[in-house]
């Protein structure tokens, strides 16, 4: 039973208790669709399927071994683009990317020396709390839920748990608790912020935030995604005012259109190709409460928030910081408890595609 008025910390504790009493199954509707891709599928076909069903990632299935084989995600596509941009002509790159089969992607990532994505999964009946801690601890953006078929003893991919789904679930079902998350983002230190000590005349006046302008080439932004392991870059004007946000999913739209040359476009040109369902840039102020952020998550399709200076600032709209879903999740779960022990049901699946 939740008391009438909670402090911020008590509300966080109440949310953790809520997550301990639920399993990953609770996050999903009774009926849902799951797109699983065979590892022998060509990347071109995989992208077509993802476009058709409007998904940005999918579990992979190794049919020969009848086993789950990791995930195909936007980050994989970013890495493929980087690889071919450096190693081939435009025409060759387009042809190669279309022909490459999914099981070869890990080889490309090895060549690029990017860390391989964690091949992990969790049983869908484990407490949701454990699954969330696992997401935080492994820096995974998504966690495949794998069950066992009792008759064949084989693996069954049930679905994929994402930070977005968990936070939406909390925002929708725990309004009576999230309203007490009254501390501000600034006080909680949630997100990544422009360093006040940094020299504003230096090359990146927004350090440590990676930014771009409307004139930056898409490929340079793709490089930032890959190198920094981030999934969005604020687009700013000369005064540091936030104009837009370029996200990894935007690159997928370009590539899906078959226009690999489009990576030479400027951000301004690329943004014109954005689909009409772009939910818009969601902003907040450093003085916003975490409770207000949960209201936004409940009402809108939020994958990250851009922190901008408020109207009281001499430069309202100026970029101040960026908050990802993992930042929010970390503030709820804490990141101090070690993995392992009896509570975690995650099974490392350490095998090649
Ligand atoms: P998520 O992990 O939720 O998918 P990101 O990959 O975008 O989100 O963010 C990972 C981490 O990097 C977060 O701590 C976030 O604050 C930070 N971050 C996000 N975007 C940027 C950026 N453009 N520049 C610097 N840091 C960023």
From TrEMBL:
GO terms for molecular function: AMP binding; protein kinase binding; protein kinase regulator activity. The keyword Repeat applies. One of its GO terms (cellular component) is nucleus. This is CBS domain-containing protein. Residues 30-88, 115-177, 203-263, 277-339 form the CBS domain. It comes from the Eukaryota. Keywords: CBS domain, Repeat. The chain holds residues 58 to 410 of 429 of the full protein. The keyword Repeat applies. Belongs to the 5'-AMP-activated protein kinase gamma subunit family.
């Amino acid at each position: 039973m939740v008391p009438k008025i909670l402090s911020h910390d008590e509300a966080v504790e109440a949310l953790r208790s809520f997550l301990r009493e639920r399993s990953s199954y609770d996050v999903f509707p009774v009926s849902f669709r799951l797109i699983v891709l065979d590892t022998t599928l060509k990347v071109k076909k995989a992208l077509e399927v993802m476009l058709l069903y409007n998904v940005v990632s999918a579990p992979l299935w190794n049919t020969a071994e009848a086993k789950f084989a990791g995930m195909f995600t936007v980050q994989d596509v970013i890495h493929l683009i980087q690889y071919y941009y450096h190693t081939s002509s435009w025409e060759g790159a387009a042809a190669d990317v279309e022909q490459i089969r999914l099981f070869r992607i890990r080889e490309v990532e090895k060549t690029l020396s990017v860390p391989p994505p964690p091949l992990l999964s969790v049983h869908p009946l484990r407490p949701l709390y454990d699954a969330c801690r696992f997401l935080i601890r492994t820096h995974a953006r998504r966690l495949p839920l794998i069950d066992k078929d009792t008759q064949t003893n084989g693996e069954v991919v049930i679905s994929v748990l994402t930070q977005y789904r968990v936070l939406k679930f909390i925002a929708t079902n725990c309004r009576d608790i999230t309203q007490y998350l009254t501390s501000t983002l600034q006080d909680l230190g949630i997100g990544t912020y422009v360093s006040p000590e940094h020299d504003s005349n230096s090359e990146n006046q927004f350090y440590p935030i990676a930014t771009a302008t409307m004139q930056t080439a898409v490929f340079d932004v793709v490089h930032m995604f890959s190198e920094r392991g981030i999934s969005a870059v604020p687009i700013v004007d000369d005064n540091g005012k936030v104009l837009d946000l370029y996200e990894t999913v935007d690159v997928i739209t370009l590539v899906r259109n078959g226009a690999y040359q489009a990576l030479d476009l400027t951000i301004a040109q690329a943004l014109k190709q954005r689909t009409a369902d772009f939910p818009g840039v969601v902003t907040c102020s450093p003085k916003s409460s975490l409770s207000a952020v949960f209201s936004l998550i409940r009402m809108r399709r939020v994958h990250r928030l851009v922190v901008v200076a408020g109207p009281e600032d001499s430069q309202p709209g100026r970029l101040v910081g960026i908050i990802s879903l993992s930042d929010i999740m970390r503030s709820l779960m804490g990141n101090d408890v070690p993995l392992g022990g009896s509570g975690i049901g995650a099974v490392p699946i350490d095998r090649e595609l």
